[in-house]
Design goal:
The strands form 2 sheets. The protein has a 5-stranded antiparallel beta sheet. Strands 6-7 form a two-stranded antiparallel sheet. By secondary structure, the protein is mainly alpha-helical. The protein contains 33 helices and 7 strands.
Length: about 650
Amino acid sequence: MQAVLNGLTGAGLLIDGDRVSLLRADDVLSATPGRLSDLPHVLGEARNIDFMSVAGADEALGILRRNHLREESLDLALMLLDSDLSEATRTEVAAVLNRELLDWDLRTWLEGVLYGAPLPAGADMDGALRYARGVEGSTVTAMLSRLSDLQNVIGRVHEAWNSVCARVLPLPAARNEATALAARNGVFRLLVHATEGANYDEFRFIALSVLHPVAGHRQIVNELIRDLDLLPSSRRPAALAVAAEDGEPGRVATDQDRKDGQYVSFDRTAAFENVKRQKDAIVNHMRAGRFDLVKRYVNELIKYQLPLDHRAENTSKSLCDLAMEAKSLRLFELQLELATRAVQVRYHDGWAWAQVGDASLILNRFDDALTAYRNASEFGDDLVGRTGYAQVLLTMDRLREALATFEQVIRDYPADTFAKTGRAEVLKSMGRLDEALEAYDAIAHEFPNNVVAKTGHAEVLKSMGRLDEALIAYDAALGKSWFDPVAVNGRASVLCALGKYEEALAVLPGESPTTRQDWIAFHIRGMAMLRAGRIEEASKIFLRGSEENPFAGDRDHFRNGLALARLHERAYDAALDILTRVRDIGNDRLAGFLRGHSAGALGDHRGAARFLSATGAPRNKPERELKAELERRFVKKEPPLYDEEWLIQHEVDCILLAA
């Protein structure tokens, strides 16, 4: 069979004798009957067309999907670097691109294209990195950081490539063809790495293979090696020593670096290659769960690289790269360990301290997180450090301090939307819902396409109990968004609170959570089942989340759900026992309702009064009704107005509205 595939359009034709089938990258079917007359529509502008022999429709469809995803990732990367696009769009792009770049092959391909030429003057790398970090996109952040660091090298490679091609290929069409082949097959990426000292033989072998269709390809590769001085020193003719000015015999060193005022001679090619090989091995061991080997290889990496790195910048960067890989694998303890090693080798590294703060916050080590973000701010990453510091205060329920910190950041960085949305979230957590709504609306007015502001607006309406309005607001937030998991989860929780359980379950992700938003969706799934009376299924979800959720700060939500399931079974002792393991941070108001219910049902009216008093002022109608009924029963000891089932359903609703 023959296939004609266009990765740009995500379409292609499969030709099997007289039968022609139309392929679509997003089609669930393997092939759809078509006609040769469809060819112009399939080929589009006829750029980057692949003609090949395939074994069948499945193979052709797999290649088409891979190529289409590659083209999409390139478009997303360029959008992320485009300062003319809205903040909402770039935030969405960062999140989507981060998910796509978890695929190592796709990430390598994208780097191959982006390394083909320096970024244009208008490319907003600082903004792209800010948005990537804002969505916790460790993978796309690492890719962009490498791209930024290598711009000078990419510029030298680009200049050498154009010079060599101009000498060897007189026709512009031939030069364009060679450049396209090199970019889309990773030649520029290998050339950049070879210039930095990586595997010379790998570059030469792949470049000769890829550029084989180009006339003079061998001459192009050889002249690039000569112009960029890529031939390893071990393969060069021996150089003669040159006498120093004082008459003493001199020496011809290969590459040198300084350490404590002394020169340390080393072969930079071999060093770069060895560091890369060690880092790749460490990542492979992470993925395989061989953490004893990870620790050993990290020690060997530091022992090898640090003596050659007089400012410790490269060693710290290597450890930070590995920390971001660990985070992408949700190995947060390992992320913290690697980031901590980074600041041990280079204490004044602001980005390394920010990673320590990020991992510490995920692991609920709040004092450590505060210290780390203070250091990040002091050592160069001021905005990241201060917004991170405020986020820790918010998580610790130190709301007044968090509000003051965010407001000071807004004064110092008036264009930063992350601080503005952080302030609105604090107001929401303080129960100042009208002010929170105004804050989100002000952000949306200033940045009309900001999805975070739209979703925040919906979240506040949900907390107010204005469910119909919240549903409309979530739909509006999702209207122009490719996929916003916060809005999807919020909308599902509203559907559940409205009694539309099956509709809520239908829009939630599956039961194999990976990201934080996946785990939140998993919790909402449990709540929907609990509200529908499917107690056993709900209990399994809550038990799993309380034990397996890698985001330690969210486990209490699952413990509350598990306690609710026990209340549903009238197992008040078991519910109270579960609730004693809930931290008094972030969700103390909701846990207080459940504790008051459990203690009161067990006859401990004084304890019930204490727990209910600690919940503070109710934030919406369901909370007011719930607290009034609990106090009526267990504090005032008056006849109840509602039955036990009403109490439990209202407790479910209060948790859903606060989620």
